[in-house]
Amino acid sequence: MRKLAYVVMTFGIAIGGSVAAAETVTMAPVASGAEYLDPALAQTPEGFRWRITRLAWTESDERAFGEFVTAIGNSNCRTYDECLKGPWNIYRASDPKGMFFYADCADLPYALRAYFAWKNGLPFSYVSGVAPVGQSRDLRYSRYGNYAVRRSDVVPQAEGAFPNARTVLNTVNNIVSSAMFRFAPEPSRGELFDFYPVKLQKGSIRPGTVIYDPNGHVAVVYNVDDEGRIRFIDTHPDNSLTRGSYGKRFVRASPPMGAGFKNWRPMKLVGASQGADGTWFGGRVVLAGDDALADWSDEQFYGTESPRPKGWSAAAFVYQGERLDYYDYVRQAVAGRDVAYDPLVETRAMVRELCDDLYYRAISVDIAVKAGLHRQAQPQRLPANIYGTHGDWETYSTPSRDARLKASFAELRDQVVRFVAMAEAGDPKLDYAGADLARDLKGVYVEEAGACSVAYTASDGSERELSFDEARKRAFDFSFDPYHCPELRWGARSEAELATCPDGDVKRAWYEAQQRLRNQTERTYDTRMGFSLADLKARAPGSGWDVPPDTDVMSALRTTASLAENAVQTAESEPPEAP
């Protein structure tokens, strides 16, 4: 019996604001000898059959989906494939042998949702085509967002003609991109999108909620604790899965870009018929409209106050009568109460997360090295945009990952400085009863940083270890370029460490010329970047920053402590006021 493979025929969409005559998405099974067979005659193997046994998603299904996501988030799995094959996936025993599971960041919400729907006999539908509002060179970064032009339903069209779940999962991976998350809170045209903007409140941000960063990244919430901390999982082109906490690495942006938190729209199958075996076929999937969603809200974009500001960046976020920074507001609103920050707990958690991020980066760089990218010749130009591209660069480079890492180092420093300022001002939102916060923060930082190290494999196969603080110091020297040796990928500068790097003068020149790009923490996806070496040396527009931001926590704490001490000495030296 010949094994069947599957070829996916995708649709075409014009990028210039109009939609071409879109072709139907078809999946045609072919024999290994390239002999085409009629899809209607190809029976889906038993283990891959997507049987629809229930017509609609219920609140119970949503809770079960959240529990499924939480189990993966709480596990120690490191790739998406490992996550679905481990004991934390209660459905794994029913998976046919030989399945491989893949998802990059945009695929992850769809891959999880589709897999869960398959295993629970639920209908599934997804946006399979978008077009830009206005002109756009890249649908993933369209300035005015996108609108949906096509949806695909996973429904048997005839009794017994079960969709092939593996084919569906592969098709979703091929079609879905972050463009499917980039839409205004109330799109003016097109089909309904799969998600809706959700109100920032306790219970609405929950396991399974999607977080969209308009810089081209997508994550899935797996836990929200009593203190309002939002934990997420995300995946990358190398299929690695990482974890983190919501914060300033996820930027706000203009409403048409659709940044922020989104929940899946409830869906149901209507007009279907029930077969002799009790499964449903035919009909179409209908999504709940905005008016049927109790927690639909556009406050993420326009703020909580009325009247709305003319510009989204001026939006005000007020919680219990107090105007807050957006990220503080999210924390309070999601916790559903007035949260007080324990600066020592918060600092400890941020250092530990950064340690995890360094570990994840080591895995990613190692994958690129094993793929042999560093042994290939340096291309004559960078991609059109280093943060959003295709091919080997997208799979093996790390500019976006590194930008988020560097932004987190900067946020750590800024937060400890803020905590000290809050303590000096007697801010009631600070939960600290000690006498010297700067000293205690130093102790926590030194303890946690000292417990963290990251190892990488050098070009000669030897293992090199970096302390947390050494990695912090080098972060803006870490090369994101997959064509560089691992020593440069980890920011080596000393002759001794670089002695094992085989990169010649050309690659070393590229490394030095990319410094300004490494200095920036912002991911500028709308900037043309096809720089040559000469362009970078000439400091072409869009080629980065001259100076990186400060990330030195210990220096910042020493400075704040010195300022406080000087203030005390000044006060003590002044003569008392006359009675």
Q: What's the helix and strand layout?
A:
Elements: E1 4-9, E2 26-31, H1 59-73, H2 80-85, H3 107-119, E3 124-132, E4 146-154, H4 165-175, E5 195-197, E6 210-213, E7 217-224, E8 230-235, E9 241-245, E10 260-264, E11 267-270, E12 273-274, E13 280-281, E14 284-287, H5 299-302, E15 317-319, E16 322-324, H6 326-335, H7 343-370, H8 391-396, H9 399-424, H10 437-450, E17 453-457, E18 463-467, H11 468-474, H12 486-489, H13 495-498, H14 505-513, H15 515-518, H16 533-537, H17 553-573
Antiparallel strand pairs: 1-2, 3-4, 5-10, 6-7, 6-10, 7-8, 8-9, 11-14, 12-13, 15-16, 17-18
Helix pairs in contact: 3-4, 7-9, 7-10, 9-17, 10-17
Could you characterize the architecture of this molecule?
With about 575 residues, the protein is of the alpha+beta class. About 30% of the residues lie in helices and about 15% in strands. It contains 17 helices and 18 strands. The chain has a six-stranded antiparallel sheet with strand order 5-10-6-7-8-9, sandwiched between helices. Strand 17 and strand 18 form a beta hairpin. The radius of gyration is 26 Å and the shape is globular. The N terminus is likely disordered.
Keywords:
single chain, 579 residues, alpha+beta, two-stranded antiparallel sheet, 17 helices, 15% strand, disordered N terminus
Q: What would you say about this model in short?
A:
The chain is of the alpha+beta class. Helices cover 32% and strands 15% of the residues. The strands form seven sheets. Strands 5-10-6-7-8-9 form a six-stranded antiparallel beta sheet, with helices on both faces. The protein has a two-stranded antiparallel sheet with strand order 1-2. The chain has a two-stranded antiparallel sheet with strand order 3-4.
